[in-house]
Amino acid sequence: METLIAQVIAGAVGGNAAGAASSQLNMGKVLNTDVGLIGGVGGGSAAAGLLGADAASLVGSLVGGAGGGAVLTAVVGLLKNKFMS
Questions:
Q1: Which residues cross the membrane (predicted)?
Q2: pTM to 2 decimal places
Q3: 2-21 and 57-84 are packed helices; what angle lies between their axes, rounded to 10 degrees?
């Protein structure tokens, strides 16, 4: 349960960081957070699966969650800008 919470929080942070890094990726705080949450769970789960279930899995979930949130936010932001313009 702790890893899921870590993934969600890290994903939200990663999503907002990606949105803040580029105006082309920014979809607003709410969408950046929502997309980051989804990407955080996916990326955190993938990272935790690769590292295994040990003490480092929480760190892996944080790193994977932030990365997953940032990547998914970037992809969705780019697609939104491409198809909405």
A1: 58-79
A2: 0.87
A3: 40
Q: 13 Cβ partners below 8 Å, 6+ apart?
A: 36, 66, 69
Domain ranges of the chain: 2-84
Residue 68's pLDDT is what? 94
Q: Given this model, what pLDDT does residue 53 score?
A: 62
Report whether pLDDT(55) > 60: no
**CA–CA separation, 52 and 59 (whole Å):** 11
For residues 15-48, one letter each, b for 16 or more C-beta atoms within 10 angstroms of the residue's C-beta and e for the rest, the string is: bbebbeeeeebbbeeebbbbbbbbbbbbbbbbbb
